Amino acid sequence: MKKMIYTICFLCGTFIFAQEKKNDSTDTLATKEIQEVILKSQRKKQFADKAVYTFDKEALERARYAKDLLRTLPELQLDPVSNTITSTKGGTTLFLINGVEATDLQVRSVAPSEVVKVEYYDIPPARWATRVDTVINILTKSTETGYVFGADVFSALDTGFVNGSAYANYTKGKNNFGLEYSLNLRDYNDRRVNSIYDYQLNGNHYRSDENRKDHFGYTFQNIALRYTRLVPDDYAFQAKLNMDIFSRFSKGVGQSVFTEDNLSESHAMFKNNGSDYVIPKLDLYYSKKIGEKDELSINVVGSHYTTNTSETAKEWIVSSGLSVYDNDMMLKAKQTSVVGELAHVHDFKSGRLSSGYRISRSSISNDLNNLTGYSQYSVTYLEQYFYTEFSGKINQFSYRVGAGLTNIHNKSAENIFDEWSFTPKVVLGYQLKNNQSIRFTGSYSPISPLSNALSSNVVQLAPNIVQRGNPFLKSQQMFSNNLTYSFNNKYFDFNAALFYRYTDRVINQYYVQDNELGGYALTYENGKSGQRYGVQLTGSYKPFGNSLLVIKAVLVPTSETVRTSKGALIKNDYLGNYFVLSSEYKAFSLQYQFNIPTYSLNGAFLNTNENQNNIFVSYKNKNWTLSTGMYWMGMPSEYKTKSLPESLVDYKVHTQIMNNKSMFVLGISYDFSKGKKTEIQRKLNNETAPAATF
């Protein structure tokens, strides 16, 4: 693995000094953000913490909406299942329109002709750094009056797969009104699961080989209503009411062969589970100009809702009907979440100073019935974040230096965790040539455990095997470094990043002996440390210098290790990958996506990523777009998990969804706009905690 990384670094170094210098156009627009460090090409400008993309007339005319433009960026990819844009480097992505937090439908509501440029922050500014990994900001033109609306549906013909949406925006003077609706529905009746548990217990050897067929699905709906009032150079106000409606179910039956030493018996089982919630969310934002150099912004987000989760599983001996286990779990979680943020920005001649304070609090009251009986308990998650950063430029060198103070306070019935952490961050950029740059970023930040990891819940997985949370978990502390080289011309858009991440008190999932119920429990611990390092190569190649043929590739040779609390070293190497071939000609477009799944570390297991082998064709005629395609050509979607050699339980599972094998889909969309809505330069964007499930 190290030899591979060293070889790639050498090739990248050779590539840096072998490029031909190109003539580039200049953007004369002034900016108060970090100034550009590198290139001024027709399409891309590289800054210390972001890349700025512009689009030619042909690309703008061909795209249906702004989302189509985002798909062409080498750092972004389209998730074909959810039909959303994600970053190739993984993690969480936040979308903005002129600095305002935006949904997928809002991005779609922007006509391509209104897009001025797109800012891709692979190093998010301080106000977002603790919440997301990537920020995408779409900058648009704006007029005083206009409206835009559209609708689409994308559906399989012979199975339960539907993506649908509709949106409308209207602007009159200083006021803007927006309405959105989206639907994602899945209903599959042929999911096949093979799972094997193999372990030693009390001097005996046990093995459970289970084959199950499930009927499962989910429905996710989102409704959003927005009102915005903008008084230029004075203030901006936005109120947004958002409703997330979600339900899922799984109903499975199967058989297993259960072996104890040399004796085996046939078992039968069923496993049913489901959950649902309705989240009403109110988001209020206010920004006020104070003189020419100062701006003060306030953002408050709140939600209150109930999540219902249930799981029923039974296994019995076929010959006698005797019960092996009977699992009946019901969890009702009432959750109240509030996020508040206050931020101030001041512009100096030499740069910009940004400072702020954010507090987020989630309180969850749980009514729980499970294997250990009935219980009521409450948990509270509180996080405070103070931050300040200064950005500027000196000749060819640009920088951003920030410092933060983070407090994590988690309180449960069993434990209270309270810790303050200093969270510094530095971003440095230097221009090498006209179209080449090198950038460095270093940061340190705490990461709080997820609610399911801290949960006191217990569920049965298999005979003698249960799963538990751990209320005594502490936060992880991550130290991250990245060194990135970027190159761009008419034919290539290339990034090579060396990355190294060290995590102290890494949260690790593992099997332990269960003293309360007997057998083994899958639970969580704070390991000693974790490391992840490698090279991420991303880029696109246009053989003809246009979109007639575009080859996009992502290669990520990675090495990862975890040192458990007992000192055992877990190591894994893999080559992450993703490839896209696309072609656009007049009103037609074609895209083919594929990857080679690889195993990566996930707690006590090695998991594969979802396989892809998809092709899509679309035809645009004025405001209408017709689409068709096929998911997972010649194969079902499949997912594999296996335990590590160090695990007390040897576990393997192979899941295949046969319904979406060679799944043929058809889609139609209509998008219309006249004029444009008023946009505000919103500086704060927050989100309450997700639903608490187990």
Automatic annotation (TrEMBL):
InterPro entries: Beta-barrel_TonB_sf (IPR036942), OMP_b-brl_3 (IPR041700). It comes from the Bacteria. It holds the Pfam family OMP_b-brl_3. GO terms for cellular component: cell outer membrane. Keywords: Cell outer membrane, Membrane, Receptor. This is Outer membrane protein beta-barrel family protein. It comes from Chryseobacterium joostei. It is found in: Cell outer membrane. Residues 338-669 form the Outer membrane protein beta-barrel domain. Its main location: membrane.
